[in-house]
From TrEMBL:
Gene3D superfamilies: Aminomethyltransferase beta-barrel domains, D-Amino Acid Oxidase, subunit A, domain 2, FAD/NAD(P)-binding domain, Probable tRNA modification gtpase trme, domain 1. Residues 426-703 form the GCVT N-terminal domain. Residues 723-808 form the Aminomethyltransferase C-terminal domain. This is FAD-dependent oxidoreductase. Residues 11-366 form the FAD dependent oxidoreductase domain. InterPro entries: FAD-dep_OxRdtase (IPR006076), FAD/NAD-bd_sf (IPR036188), FAO_M (IPR032503), GcvT/YgfZ/DmdA (IPR028896), GcvT/YgfZ_C (IPR029043), GcvT_C (IPR013977), GCVT_N (IPR006222), TrmE/GcvT-like (IPR027266). Belongs to the GcvT family. Residues 369-424 form the FAD dependent oxidoreductase central domain. SUPFAM superfamilies: Aminomethyltransferase beta-barrel domain, FAD-linked reductases, C-terminal domain, FAD/NAD(P)-binding domain, Folate-binding domain. Transmembrane segments: none annotated. PANTHER family: AMINOMETHYLTRANSFERASE, PYRUVATE DEHYDROGENASE PHOSPHATASE REGULATORY SUBUNIT, MITOCHONDRIAL-LIKE.
Length: 816
């Protein structure tokens, strides 16, 4: 039947699950009532209908915790607004620890949660059993209690959101399949359906496990794969308490909650299998996958030991349904690459119910206000790499995502599936030198080097891991002698054309209109002054510039350039990452080593800091740039891939007598954090401005034509900042921070850690974190005064604060 669709709408949302309906609801609450929701079957029929309904705030980042906090606000107010119950009730959640390592993780999780304003309470075995009386406490070390959490009904919540959206003017159409996205001039301008086209200013893809297929209709890469996901519901069990806290026993890969006099037992167990990897069937609706009790039985038996009442309980339902997962475990929320005004919200890794109301709220604010209300670098769809949409890669990697969901999340933990995909031209050379590889976006990267006789493997812990001393030796070699890094995974973008300078001047906050052979450190800002990219720009000649980007950000940086090269700009950008190796030779002995391999004059007078030029080296030529990310004298060498091995061999053979040491990414991180060098996605991102991040020195305020974000930044400069990135050194050399730990000043919570690493030169853990000031224009001295503490695993550790780098504060060493 023809549903009589409108020919246009301000916003078209594709997908009628909880996230699509939440987006419509919150848009209409913001006054945008010309909203259409298209659902190919019936509302909730994809994966929403079988959600277990848990609401838990223990998420891995501050941004994703904020999403759940927004969801909680919606759960608490929705019924009063719409008259339809969500079934939400506050019961609390208990996370069990049955090992010392899990107890350490929960204690750290408690501190991290507090940094986001979330109430938590650590309980012993007796107090845990008192809250969940069905528990067998044998082996329980303790638990972490979240008193403000609960559970609800996913279908009821979605219907309530839909009613709220419709009463404010949104139109919802079921049994209407969207077949594609209309595009014009790099923008999404509507959707196609089986009943005709709908023009729109904004398109939102909330298609759940169909996200990969629907994204492909507009050439948008969405790496999702559905996996089989289980829960069991028992027959009624006489006498069980009502509204007990949800019990999460991660060591058993399971959770338990009471449900209408029965118990539900859900699983995040290893060994799940992909469902329909060749594409989700178009007619899939309220899908159930055949159960596999041989697979599930051993996990259920473990939960019988944990909750003995299950032994005599009959099973009313053994449910197995599909849930979509992503390769890195983070969902996709935000504007997609290559298309303006096309937003994506998909791949929620089985947390769609608890995140959906908040995600819809964020999307609505984003669309209405033109920017995200929450800093969410981790969910950015522009992080996607092409290989991540490969079916075989997805099958392997997302299976591991689910396998590890309830495992201990160790610092520096490495994925093991779908490996050995992207390799530096020097991979085998560094492997022979003892490299222990980690993986980032498919790249195999030397994280540390194992001396002869040392096992090339990680032994994880929250303290000194097995590679600690080996990485420390690499760190010291760079500080005291000379070290060699293979940084070939860093992104390299060639911007060229008649208008290349004009385009980059508009994008860059710093002035890149320099002479050829100079490198400029700069940020790219959004209209609100937030940092969208942190890069270096090397001017090669009058019309060519080379942008060096981080390996994790090259795709979003490439997209930013594409979106800001206008139709009348005579300029192009090309990703040339794979054509060039990048060797970094760093340390006080780097000049002595390299000078013996080239006819070029590497003296400070002839080759000052910030210079980039092509030089001979060995039997070939490389582009040598005097720059540093470690705080020492050194050169980055861009080497054509075909001669990379020769250049590497030339340097290592000459460097052996001088004590040249290979160094990996762990040492790179410890070196850069001692020098307080920022890392995009950790210390800076789109919610932080250069003034807040202490990067005002890289802003060319008065350059001709200005730059994107200048007006907002100037307003902030005039008003004064209210937060500042500060460097900290822990007083206790045996304590380790990693990220998101709370920062206290004179006993008051003032911020959280952005990133941290042990600084081997300073002999203690060093952290960067944002500190909130009491008012705009607070003087610099305030940020460095007062008694600071950083909370680690619920214990507060005193720390020294500094706005200047604690190592080489005058930056004399790189310019020596």
């Amino acid at each position: 039947m023809d549903p009589n669709l409108p020919s246009r709408a301000q916003v078209v949302i594709v997908g009628g699950g909880i996230i699509g309906c939440s987006t419509a609801y919150h848009l209409t609450r913001r006054g945008w009532t010309d909203v259409v929701v298209l659902e190919r079957n019936t509302l909730t029929s994809g994966t929403t209908w079988h959600a277990a309904g848990l609401v838990t705030q223990a998420r891995p980042t501050h941004g994703t915790r904020e999403i759940v906090q927004r969801s909680l606000q919606t759960f608490q107010s929705l019924e009063a607004d719409t008259g339809l119950s969500t079934g939400y009730e506050r019961t609390g959640t208990l996370h069990l620890a049955t090992s010392p390592d899990r107890w350490e993780e929960l204690r750290r999780q408690a501190s991290v949660s507090r940094s986001s304003g979330i109430r938590t309470q650590l309980l012993g075995p007796d107090a845990t059993e008192e809250l969940f009386s069905l528990l067998n406490p044998d082996g329980v070390v303790g638990s972490l209690y979240y008193p403000d959490e609960g559970r609800g009904n996913a279908t009821d919540t979605t219907m309530s959101l839909a009613r709220g959206a419709k009463k404010r003017g949104a139109r919802i159409y079921e049994h209407v399949k969207a077949t594609g996205v209309l595009r014009q001039g790099g923008r999404a301008v509507g959707v196609t359906t089986e009943y005709g086209d709908i023009e729109a200013e904004y398109v939102v893809n909330c298609t759940g496990m169909w996200g990969r297929e629907f994204g492909a209709t507009a050439d948008v890469p969405v790496p999702l794969q559905a996996l089989a996901h289980y829960y069991v519901v028992t027959e009624e069990i006489p006498g069980i308490p009502h509204r007990m806290p949800t019990l999460k026993s991660s060591d058993d890969h399971s959770y338990v909650k009471d449900e209408s006099g029965a118990l539900m037992v859900g699983f995040f167990e290893p060994g799940s299998v992909p469902w329909s990897p060749h594409g989700i069937p178009e007619d899939a609706e309220f899908t159930r996958i055949p159960e596999d009790w041989d697979h599930l039985g051993p996990f259920y038996e473990k939960m019988i030991e944990r909750v003995p009442v299950l032994a005599d309980a009959g099973i009313r339902l053994c449910f197995n349904g599909p849930e979509s997962f992503t390769p890195d475990g983070f969902y996709h929320l935000g504007e997609v690459p290559a298309l303006h005004n096309y937003f994506l919200a998909a791949g929620f890794n089985s947390v769609g119910f608890l995140s959906g109301p908040g995600a819809g709220s964020v999307l609505a604010d984003w669309i209405v206000d033109g920017h995200s209300p929450i800093d969410l670098a981790e969910t950015d769809p522009r992080r996607v790499q092409r290989h991540e949409t490969n079916r075989r890669f997805l099958e392997q990697r997302v299976t591991e995502t689910l396998d590890l969901a309830y495992s201990i999340h160790w610092p520096f933990e490495q994925r093991t599936s779908a490996r050995a995909l992207r390799r530096s031209p020097l991979h085998h050379r560094t492997e022979n030198a003892g490299a222990v590889f980690g993986e980032l976006l498919g790249w195999e990267r030397a994280n540390w080097y194992a001396p002869e006789g040392v096992e090339r493997a990680y032994a994880y812990s929250y303290g000194r891991q097995n590679w600690f001393e080996h990485s420390a030796a690499e760190h010291r070699a760079v500080r005291e002698g000379v070290g060699l890094f293979d940084l070939s995974s860093f992104g390299k973008l060639l911007v060229q054309g008649r208008d290349a300078e004009r385009v980059l001047q508009r994008i860059c906050a710093n002035d890149i209109a320099v002479e050829p052979g100079r490198i400029v450190y700069t940020q790219w800002l959004n209209e609100h002054g937030g940092i969208e990219a942190d890069v270096t720009v090397t001017r090669l000649d009058a019309t060519r510039f080379l942008v060096l980007s981080g390996p994790a950000t090259v795709q979003r940086d490439l997209d930013w350039l594409h979106k800001h090269i206008g139709p009348d700009d005579f300029a192009t950008v090309t990703d040339i990452t794979g054509t060039l190796a990048l060797l970094s030779v760093m340390g006080p002995e780097s000049r002595r080593l390299l000078q013996g391999l080239t006819d070029a004059d590497l003296s400070d007078a002839a080759f000052p800091f910030g210079t980039s030029m092509e030089i001979d080296l060995g039997l070939g030529f490389v582009r040598a740039t005097r720059i540093t990310y470690v705080g020492e004298l050194g050169w980055e060498l861009l080497v054509p891939a075909d001669i990379a091995v020769h250049i590497y061999d030339t340097i290592t053979e000459a460097g052996a007598p001088a004590g040249l040491r290979h160094a990996g990414y762990h040492a790179l991180n410890s070196l850069r954090i001692e020098k307080a060098y920022r890392s995009w996605g950790h210390d800076i991102s789109s919610g932080d401005t250069p003034l807040e991040a202490g990067l005002g020195f890289a802003v060319a305020w008065d350059k001709p034509g200005g730059f994107i974000g200048r007006e907002a930044l100037a307003e902030q400069r005039a008003a004064g900042i209210t937060r500042r990135l500060v460097q900290f050194a822990l007083d206790d050399p045996d304590r380790f921070a990693y990220h998101d730990e709370p920062i206290y000043r004179d006993g008051e919570l003032v911020g959280r850690v952005a990133s941290a690493m042990y600084g081997h030169t300073l002999g203690r853990c060093v952290a960067l974190g944002y500190v909130d000031a009491p008012s705009p224009g607070t003087p610099r001295s305030w940020f460095e005064s007062g008694a600071y503490e950083i909370e680690i695993a619920t214990e507060r550790c005193s720390a020294r604060a500094s706005l200047r780098p604690l190592y080489d504060p005058k930056s004399e060493r790189p310019k020596s």
